[in-house]
Design a protein that fits this description.
homodimer, mainly alpha, Arc Repressor Mutant, subunit A, 3-stranded antiparallel beta sheet, globular, DNA-binding
Chain lengths: 145, 145
DNA sequence: TAAGATTAAATTGCACACAATTTAATTTCA
DNA sequence: TGAAATTAAATTGTGTGCAATTTAATCTTA
């Protein structure tokens, strides 16, 4: 067996596992907000800027309309966001926080700390990992045209 | 806005982005093998040991039968694996590589190197990241009973 | 040993993620 | 200016990932 093909020797599997594990760690806390993890990410972006187009959300989250359109319809059903065609360009759909959507931020503000506590890992170690990952993501993106 | 709620200040988003990015980097190479990324992971595990139960695969890949059963049926349709009930315990399903499944390893052996080249990142840096992630995964798992 | 508990897969249902295509609006430029 | 190109979302279809439930087999133990 080629060593390179061994699961343990590949980077991809730890990254894939950690990503799933983190989402699973979030689940109990996000369940209380009635949000999925990708929905939570969309809300994070909207809490930074309360109105954005579908494209802007997609660019920040690296998601396309095939993923975002149904997700945003679900957030609309929960009355956390509203979806309106732009007046100046009818192709564009503007997503805005509703009052409920804004108020949810209060509850969500406790999530990051809850999560860090639940993972039992030193903040410094998480910070190191974050910087390492961001560094690699930057390099990957540099080499995309 | 709470700083902790800012997307850029959270670890979760870079991990989530990197995991998706890595799967996307694999895609062109795995397309040539007619495998999805999770199917590739299953094949990696089977190339290490040509016969395993669904539970054993699930334990190594952190996947349950709800995910594995349909995935394995697709690998069976492609004639890469066979699925047979255990003779000694009819509850258990044994997954075995077929001849085709074994032969695919030859082609797959080039994938890891192709991937590293396509990412334009130093092997040392990837290795550092891998160790860092595995370390954190270990700690998370320690605190799960 | 027979009822109840446990276990392994399968099934069901929901929500992404992404490729490919479609639809509708806007832009470009010949 | 009007046809062709481009753009933004939506739609369609496939394949995960996971919770919850179901089914069938095996184990436990009173």
């Amino acid at each position: 067996m080629t060593d390179q093909l061994k699961l343990e020797n590949q980077l991809c599997f730890p990254v894939y596992s950690l990503a799933k594990e983190i989402v699973n760690q979030y689940r109990p806390f996000l369940d209380k907000l009635d949000l999925t993890y990708p929905q939570y990410l969309v809300m994070l972006v909207l809490w930074e800027q309360r109105q954005q187009t579908v494209s802007e959300l997609g660019e920040k989250l690296h998601l396309d309309s095939g993923t975002l359109t149904p997700l945003l319809k679900r957030l609309e059903q929960k009355e956390l966001v509203s979806r309106d065609r732009s007046k100046t360009d009818e192709r564009v759909v503007c997503i805005s926080l509703t009052g409920n959507g804004e108020r949810l931020q209060e509850q969500a503000s406790k999530v990051p700390e809850q999560l860090i506590n639940s993972m039992h890992i030193a903040v410094e170690e998480l910070e190191t990992l974050k910087i390492c990952i961001q560094d690699i993501l930057t390099k990957i993106n540099q080499h995309k045209k």
